[in-house]
Amino acid sequence: MDIFVLSKNFPKEEQYSLTDQIIRSSRSVSANIAEGWGKRTYQSEFKKHLVYATGSLEETKAWLLFAKECGYINNEKYQSVFTVSEEIGAKLFRLFQNWKS
């Protein structure tokens, strides 16, 4: 939700580019985890979706950096959201490494 709230302050001209992309990629993280969880009886399917979620997370982080560099968010907000995204990434990595191994 932090991403959604932050993106509301992006300029109107970014509505169909940066705003749309950062919202889509951030939503894709949880959507891929959920889809993978639904297929968790197949270890490879679950892990594949964790990889997709990680990719979407990295995309979101790239868009966050872009927003900061363009001056759409300040460094404090960027660091706050970036820190949370790093924590999520670490949890995804641990889950991937330890799932039924």
How do you describe this structure in short?
This protein is an all-alpha fold.
Largest sheet: none
- Given as residue ranges, the uncertain stretches (5+ residues, pLDDT < 50) are none
The CATH class designation is Mainly Alpha
Please provide the count of β strands: 0
Helix content: over 70%
Q: Which percent band covers the strand fraction?
A: under 5%
Instruction: Spell the H/E element sequence.
Output: HHHH
Count of alpha and pi helical runs: 4
Look up the CATH topology: de novo design (two linked rop proteins)
The backbone outline, from C-alpha atoms, is elongated
Q: From the alpha-carbon coordinates, what is the Rg to the nearest angstrom?
A: 15 Å
What can you see in these coordinates?
This protein is mostly helical. It has a single domain (15-98), classed as 23S rRNA-intervening sequence (de novo design (two linked rop proteins), Up-down Bundle). It is 80% helix and 0% strand. It has helices at residues 2-7, 15-38, 43-69, 75-98. α2 (15-38) runs antiparallel to α3 and α3 (43-69) runs antiparallel to α4 (75-98). It starts with a helix and ends with a helix. The mean pLDDT is 94.
